[in-house]
Design a protein that fits this description.
alpha+beta, 2 domains, 3-stranded antiparallel β-sheet, 5 helices
Length: 203
């Protein structure tokens, strides 16, 4: 049984074992898969995207339902993007979300890569959870630089553990010094920063 959590993992087992050059033993594969789960979850956390209520990474494309408080504005900021399709948008103060409260697709515009939906006018009113959105959001194919960052982080953790360098930040041998980053390599963090959901920071 695989330990890879497909609701979270941003790389496949075959991709990471090939990258690491590890053996195909069940024990080693299991260890690597757990590291992929951890690295992928950390990627979701560091980018402010996180996991949805079902435990699915917001990086991964799937059908989603989100509720928003109607504040009279004209813009929704979805949590999982890019947006592939919008299935329905309701605005209902009674939170029944019947057909009479369905917003016509002609009354809003979808900005897929930005993860925003803008209505024609201030339609998003009605108070707590008056706005219901169903859509498909997240990457159908994880960007290559993000996949590589997860692989790099898994390799860093894997080698640190196998080389018994946990907690070591620098080693000096004669006139040479080697420095190890404690938790996350800067190159990995720089990629995570590019995918950070800045809307979550200002929201």
């Amino acid at each position: 049984m695989s330990d890879l959590n497909t609701d979270v993992a941003l790389v496949t087992t075959s991709a990471i074992t090939a990258y690491l050059g590890t053996s195909s033993s069940a024990t080693e594969v299991s260890e690597v898969e757990l590291l992929v789960n951890a690295a992928s979850t950390l990627a979701a956390d560091k980018t402010m995207r996180g996991l949805d209520n079902s435990g699915v990474s917001r990086f991964l494309s799937t059908s989603r339902t989100e509720y928003f408080d109607g504040d009279g504005s004209d813009t929704l900021y979805v949590k999982a993007y890019p947006i592939t399709t919008v299935t329905s948008l309701y605005v209902d103060p009674d939170r029944d979300y019947g057909s009479s409260t369905l917003i016509d697709t002609d009354d809003y515009s979808v900005y897929e890569n930005e993860g925003t939906i803008k209505t024609d006018g201030n339609l998003l009113a009605g108070g707590r959870k008056s706005v219901k959105l169903t859509y498909t959001g997240g990457y159908t194919t994880i960007p290559e630089d993000l996949q590589h960052a997860v692989k790099e982080l898994v390799m860093f953790w894997y080698k640190r553990n196998t080389d018994k360098r946990v907690g070591v930040t620098s080693v000096s041998i004669g006139d040479k010094s080697i420095t190890y980053e404690k938790d996350i390599p800067e190159s990995v963090l720089s990629v995570f920063k590019r995918y950070r959901d800045w809307k979550s920071v200002v929201a």
